[in-house]
TrEMBL record, chain A:
The keyword Cell membrane applies. It is found in: Cell membrane. It is a multi-pass membrane protein. The chain crosses the membrane at residues 47-68, 80-101, 121-139, 159-187, 199-225, 240-263, 284-305, 317-340, 352-374, 386-404. InterPro entries: FDH_cytochrome_b556_subunit. It comes from Geomonas propionica. Coiled coil: none annotated. This is Polysulfide reductase. Keywords: Cell membrane, Membrane, Transmembrane, Transmembrane helix.
TrEMBL record, chain B:
This is 4Fe-4S dicluster domain-containing protein. Keywords: 4Fe-4S, Iron, Iron-sulfur, Metal-binding, Repeat. InterPro entries: 4Fe4S_Fe-S-bd, 4Fe4S_Fe_S_CS, FDH_Electron_Transfer_Unit, Formate_DH_Fe-S_su. It comes from the Bacteria. It holds the Pfam family Fer4_11. PROSITE patterns: 4FE4S_FER_1, 4FE4S_FER_2. The keyword Repeat applies. Residues 38-67, 131-160 form the 4Fe-4S ferredoxin-type domain. It comes from Geomonas propionica. Its main location: other. It is found in: Cell envelope. SUPFAM superfamilies: 4Fe-4S ferredoxins (SSF54862). The keyword Metal-binding applies.
Length: 451, 305
């Protein structure tokens, strides 16, 4: 893409091309390139070849999982019923997707409009993270076609998973609505965007509620297995808080990570606002993440003190726990704090990567590595399970990239002066401020419907 | 504007409290088990490891042929657990002891307040009044949370099936026997009378009676009387239960009591958060306008009580 832009290609960032003609949908989909140009740039990208290799092996294996059953694809263990699909796919993807509700809250509730250049990326990150967590879930469920059963056929309201199912389903629709403003701009449907803007506050508040509850609920799921999760990763009173609080820096750091990758690999896509504000916004996010990590480390230590589990620290499991908490949380906290104070962005970003690693490691530890710590054997996921997990993750990256290339996430959608209503021509991120001076609350009906 | 927001918060709070109640519902109170619940007392001092209970279970539940015959003593070399192909297994412990090995039959213990039941999001499990914990394969989605939750590692999953995998575990022969007042197949076949079928309440008395009559034969504990809220299967043992592969670290509270902290918090979040964050939003909004120094009349109104 870089070369093509140098050769005079105009990137798609408005409904009209350089000659003032309205762009067609195909034209927008092909990024303003001709089909042959598009294929050329796709083939030229070495990363696409890696993806192609993953899909070439992964897709047949994924299909095989549905033909030959879980025993063929996974370890199929009775002692470790949740393998990589859930241990990594669900439990790690969801906390990294808490960014949507956090940035939504910061921009729409707290009025932090300076964070708007990254708000849409955070919302998209949330939506895709949840969506692919559900994809992992579908790969893991014994009978995925029965996924809607807890909503329609039979209810188990005393179960934490019931709550997770309902909340994730509701929250997914909330996130679709939140991200759809970008889609409506791109497709050219201002009425839809106006509709969503009216209920933004309602959507955001329900986002906070649903996120608090199901991020916590994922932790609470493990309180069903008090003897199986290692005591250092378990706390019957605080488990849900551990998961909820660690999801906060997890989501923020994931946005830093993704924005860093996007700024490096698709610099052409971000507009000047994004490029100029990115460092400043990253610092703000890192500050928030630091508060989150500090709180998380504190409540983690409180939990150990609360149940007097200090003795476990002196075991092999204890060392592994120390590794997780030091490399995944304490070190990044130090790096980010130092980076924020000295404005050393590389350090801040490094800290964010490590936090993402720490959160993922924490979830994988809780769900898989330290699970059944009393049993003599540990479960190593077989290669097909790894391949499928990798394939779904590669799909996640492809979809992520596809959307970032096209929808106005990293850039503002330029509306031309032809637009009849001037206020609506102002691109979305500025709307938050304008809305604040207009009608600060959503209508009753839209709010109640969402809850 | 303020009143409007207040009304909105009340409305949401009200509906969500009602909604939250259903989430908590069954998680409150303690359940001691149905009064007429049946159970089985396993006297491990009597068991000789003949595995005829395994064979009887296999036949009664129409399970697939085992890999080796039920006479094969080689299976005792490794500790086994119930699977989708064997609802009950017998393990051998203490084989180096001069008093001879001790055998322990493992199967679903049919808890009074089963973790599998409370963790199931489609309510596929039922605790019948006869004491059996049965399972409805028609609605099971296959999340396997019950297997995570079971403190005894009992449920097995049919991983081999691609089209209709289901959870499989001992159902106390509910469909074919218990419903008609008959003892489960394993109890009926036991040649040593190591298994005693009866009302759970009577079995507890019987177990304590045996301990009282021959205290040198047993450790003074009935496993399953109180563990995780009590189970329908009860065990007597000649040595410490931890030496026979029993988890002796289990609490006397049912598993669900661990989860109640969280479940109790749910309606609170549902009702407090909307008002809290809408309120913060109003606060932030006014602050912003003060800071920018271009307050409008309508905003001034908001700050007035």
């Amino acid at each position: 893409m870089k070369k093509m832009i140098q050769h005079g290609l105009a990137i798609v960032d408005s409904p009209y091309d350089e000659d003032g003609k309205k762009r067609t949908l195909v034209n927008k989909l092909l990024l303003g390139l001709t089909p042959s140009q598009y294929l050329l740039q796709a083939f030229r990208n070495p990363f696409n070849w890696i993806l192609a290799a993953i899909f070439a092996i992964g897709i047949p294996v994924l299909i095989g999982r549905f033909i030959f059953g879980l025993a063929w694809a996974t370890s199929g263990s009775n002692d470790y019923p949740w393998g990589l699909f859930l241990g990594f796919g669900l439990f790690a993807m969801v906390p990294l997707s808490s960014s949507g509700f956090q940035l939504g809250t910061a921009c729409e509730i707290f009025g932090r409009h300076d964070l708007e250049p990254i708000e849409r990326l955070a919302l998209l990150n949330g939506l895709l993270g949840y969506f692919f967590a559900v994809m992992y879930l579908l790969a893991d469920l014994g009978q995925p076609w029965r996924l809607p059963y807890p909503m329609v056929v039979s209810f188990g309201p005393a179960a934490v998973l019931f709550l997770v199912a309902w909340h994730v389903a509701t929250y997914l629709s909330v996130q679709v609505a939140e991200v759809s403003t970008a889609f409506f701009e791109w497709i050219g449907f201002p009425a839809g965007k106006r509709g969503i803007r009216k209920i933004t506050l309602g959507l955001t508040v329900s986002g906070i509620i649903l996120s608090t509850l199901h991020q916590g609920a994922l932790g609470a799921l493990f309180t069903y297995a008090p003897g199986k999760v290692h005591p250092l990763w378990y706390s019957s009173s605080f488990q849900w808080l551990h998961f909820f609080v660690s999801s906060l820096p997890g989501g923020l750091c994931m946005v830093i990570t993704v924005s860093t990758i996007a700024a490096k690999t698709m610099a052409w896509r971000g507009d000047t606002r994004f490029r100029e504000k990115l460092d400043k916004v990253t610092v703000s996010l890192a500050k928030g993440a630091c508060m989150g990590i500090a709180t998380y480390i504190t409540i983690k230590l409180i939990a150990i003190a609360h149940d007097n589990k200090w003795a476990y620290l002196d075991t092999g499991w204890g060392q592994w726990f120390m590794f997780e908490i030091i490399v995944g949380f304490m070190l990044p906290l130090t790096l980010m704090t130092y980076g924020v104070h000295t404005r050393k962005m590389a350090m801040v970003r490094m800290g964010a990567f490590m936090t993402v690693f720490g959160v993922v490691l924490n979830r994988v530890n809780t769900a898989m590595i330290t699970f059944n710590w009393k049993l003599p054997h540990r479960e190593i996921p077989p290669w097909r399970e790894v391949i499928i997990s990798l394939t779904i993750f590669a799909t996640y990256i492809v979809v992520y990239r596809f959307i970032l290339y096209r929808l106005p996430i990293l850039f503002k959608w330029r509306q031309q002066e032809q637009e009849e209503t001037v206020p609506e021509a102002v691109p979305a991120p500025a709307l938050g401020r304008r809305e604040a001076s207009r009608v600060p609350v959503a209508s009753y009906s839209s709010m109640t419907k969402l809850d | 504007m303020k009143r409007r927001n207040f009304l909105k918060a009340c409305l949401i709070g009200g509906t969500t409290i009602a909604l939250g109640k259903t989430n908590k519902g069954w998680a409150s109170g303690s359940f001691e088990g149905y009064p007429e619940a049946m159970g089985v007392l396993v006297d491990t001092t009597r068991c000789i490891g003949c595995r005829s209970c395994e064979a009887a279970c296999n036949k009664e539940q129409k399970l697939p042929e085992p890999d080796t015959s039920f006479d094969d003593p080689a299976v005792f070399e490794h500790e086994r657990r119930p699977t989708s192909k064997a609802y009950t297994v017998v393990n051998r412990y203490q084989k180096e002891q001069p008093s001879g090995p001790v055998y322990r039959k493992v199967q679903c213990n049919h808890c009074n307040e089963p973790a599998c039941l409370t963790s199931c999001f489609v309510n596929a499990y039922t605790k019948t009044k006869e004491g059996a914990v049965i399972y409805n394969s028609k609605i099971c989605v296959g999340c396997r949370n019950c297997m995570i939750a079971c403190p005894f590692n009992v449920p097995g999953y049919d991983y081999d099936s691609a089209t209709n995998p289901i959870v499989k575990k001992c159902i106390l022969c509910y469909d074919t026997r218990l419903k008609y007042g008959k003892p489960p197949a394993c109890v009926e076949i036991c040649p040593q009378e190591a298994l005693t079928f009866g009302h759970r309440a009577d079995l507890i008395k019987l177990a304590h009676e045996r301990i009282r009559a021959t205290p040198e034969r047993y450790v003074d504990h009935v496993y399953g009387e109180k563990e995780v809220g009590g189970t329908s299967w009860l065990y007597l043992a000649p040595v410490g239960f931890d030496k026979l592969g029993f988890d002796t670290t289990l609490s006397n509270d049912p598993i669900i009591s661990n989860v109640k902290d969280f479940l109790g918090m749910v309606p609170m979040v549902l009702s407090i958060w909307p008002a809290l964050f809408s309120g913060i939003h109003l606060l932030c909004k006014n602050q912003e306008h003060d800071g920018h120094g271009h307050d409008t009349d309508s905003n001034q109104e908001d700050t007035k009580p």
